[in-house]
Amino acid sequence: MTIDSAREAPGLTEAPPPELIQLLTPEGIRVEHPDYPLDLSPEEIRGLYRDLVMVRKVDLEAVALTRQGELGLWASLLGQEAAQVGSGRALAERDMVFPTYREHGVAWCRGLDPLRLLALFRGLSNCGWDPAEHNFHLYTIVIGSQTLHAAGYAMGVQRDGVLGTENAAGTIAYFGDGATSQGDVNEAFVFASVFNAPIVFFCQNNQWAISEPLEKQSRIPLYKRAQGFGFPGLRVDGNDVFACLAVTRRALEAARTGQGPTLIEAYTYRMGAHTTTDDPTRYRLAAELESWKLKDPIERVKAYMVKNELADAAFFDEVDAEAKRYATDLRRRCLEMPDPEPLAIFENVYAEGHSLISEEQRRFAEYLESFDD
Amino acid sequence: MTETLTLAKAMNEGLRRALDDDPKVLVMGEDVGRLGGVFRVTDGLQKDFGEERVIDTPLAESGIVGTAIGLALRGYRPVVEIQFDGFVFPAADQIITQLAKMRLRSLGAVRLPVVIRIPCGGGIGAVEHHSESPEAYFTHTAGLRVVACSNPSDAYTMIQQAVTCDDPVIFFEPKRRYWDKAPVDTAPGRDGWTPFDRARVVNPGEDVTVLAYGPMVKTCLEAASAALEEGRTLEVIDLRSLNPLDIDTVVSSVERTGRCVVVHEAPVFNGYGAELAARITERCFYHLEAPVLRVGGFSTPYPPSRLEDHYLPDLDRVLDGVDRAMGW
Ligand SMILES: Cc1ncc(C[n+]2csc(CCOP(=O)(O)OP(=O)(O)O)c2C)c(N)n1
């Protein structure tokens, strides 16, 4: 393969692959899929639209804060809002989420205050929330690790004997296309499969792992991997919030009723840079970005709503205004967050007293005090 | 020919030279090709040497090191990039159980000239797993050579020496020094190069021997300048090679100064400094005026970036160590 052929990224192909599950076309036309009926009230549709807009606005605000030096880094979800909001709104409260570092939209759906995310990327904490608070686990930076934790968690749910009852909980693990190359992810597939664990593997195939296109990770469509491990895999239009919702709902239901794991490949696109330190112009063609802009996850819902008179101009204006107010407030709250005290370094390393830590903490406190006079 | 280069560019030139010198040399890793690496250390190499030699790999560290072992078994000399220190652990199994031991297990029949480059250390305001100092794990594993460069000139020569070495080499690059500039002699030929398993006295002095490597060398040189204003001279030694350790250079210095402070970013407890302290005590016991002291990170996970200035030894912490050694 030459370097040039590597540029023929899958994003450049115009027609969506035939196996793609879609309920809303990029033009905003509702289509039916025999396996994924979805009945949403106008209110629910407006809710999803609001989520998409809010999530995008929070993300853009975080990018802006990073550019202004207020955050050390930000991994933008621009373009992936539908995959995250669709799957996130499919979750029941009891379901458990195992995210990567880009799941801001899922965090939003779980009710996690975006300020927590900003605190992490501002360098104030090494994550800093209690996963049990919103059934949203810690962000994971080491690629793929969390898929094994999710599989194990699901095995725990299974052992609790709640599957098939109203107390059943599903587990969902998020990861990217690049992550599918990791041993951990493949091992998670094996465990989930042989133990028939109640888990949904939600891969956001955004076409790129930093600079490496999908071809550097796989020669077959990712959803097809599942078959080799012995469980169903499907590909959904990741820019279609309806389809993501319907498909994830159904996979979670399968998990909760003891039918085992599902792999969902949400076919989407990372519109921005990998993170704010990345420069995609070094590896990505502008034409690719342009072609994906036409599939924007927010615009298509809006088009659908307008066509079907589910909302008027006042509604769209109000959502925009709300998002703006929210972002302004979030920025203020971000800038108000104080730096942690130096001695916080020694906190929460162990659950029980630890003489080495106490000793180092005491000495460091003395050292800091020596500058006072 | 002497050029002024950043450390990252010097690495790049060294790798370029290595690829030029030997068609069996390969560069592999995540994003090393088209992007040129997240720190641009491999910038332009794929363009000049092709995709067969500068390989963007799947996102799998165990896979990267494991296949590098296989390529080495087939006569290639892979230079592997681990994107950040914290991501070497998925490959730890391949490095520790396989790479380090195959030569011995084959009674010397197998050579594994694999270089594993790891941008290491903190100070760049990064998120978790991007600022670690995992050297102790690897120096503890027999069969690996472990080196750390601290300046552009060494980066240029040491990487070439690592590539031509027939043993596996763990090669640490101090990421917060990537942008530091210094003159580098890039004339062909290796005459006058310090062997890459030798330490180097980078600042001669009489009062205290300060041992450092990688990112801390610069900090210790700054401390030496500051100490001079108080009339103290620090002998700063850049260890360069952590395993093997050039203990003789260290011993001859400590025998003169009678005092030694070891500085590293990694936690002090069970860190590389512990080995140095023990060894120096054995060799220099009757010359020591004070115990060998260590200045380093705490026994805590690397903190969030807003606290890293407290965690990382800085000029004041080094001088504090020097004061304690002098005041004994
Ligand atoms: C084990 C490991 N190796 C390398 C990295 C550095 N890294 C961070 S994100 C990334 C690319 C991830 O791509 P993908 O899984 O497709 O997810 P995306 O970021 O595109 O959402 C890499 C290589 C890491 N975080 N963890």
Can you offer a commentary on this structure?
Chain B: Pfam families: Transket_pyr, Transketolase_C. Chain B: It is an enzyme of class 1 (oxidoreductase). Chain B: Keywords: Oxidoreductase, Pyruvate. The complex is a heterodimer of chains A (373) and B (328). Chain A is of the alpha/beta class. Chain A has two domains: 24-340, 3-Layer(aba) Sandwich (Rossmann fold); 342-372, no CATH class. In chain A, 43% of the residues lie in helices and 8% in strands. In chain A, strand 2 (171-176), helix 7 (183-194) and strand 3 (199-205) form a beta-alpha-beta unit. Chain B has 328 residues and is α/β, with parallel strands linked by helices. In chain B, 36% of the residues lie in helices and 21% in strands. Chain B has helices at residues 7-21, 45-49, 61-73, 92-99, 102-105, 135-139, 152-164, 216-229, 247-257, 272-284, 308-311, 315-326; strands spanning 2-6, 25-29, 54-56, 77-81, 115-120, 145-148, 169-174, 181-185, 200-203, 208-212, 234-238, 241-243, 260-267, 293-297. Chain B has a seven-stranded mixed beta sheet with strand order 3-2-4-5-7-6-12, with helices on both faces. In chain B, strands 9-11-10-13-14 form a five-stranded mixed beta sheet, sandwiched between helices. In chain B, helix 1 runs parallel beside helix 7. Chain B starts with a strand and ends with a helix. The complex binds thiamine diphosphate (TPP).
Give me a quick take on this structure.
The complex is a heterodimer of chains A (373) and B (328). With 373 residues, chain A is α/β, with parallel strands linked by helices.
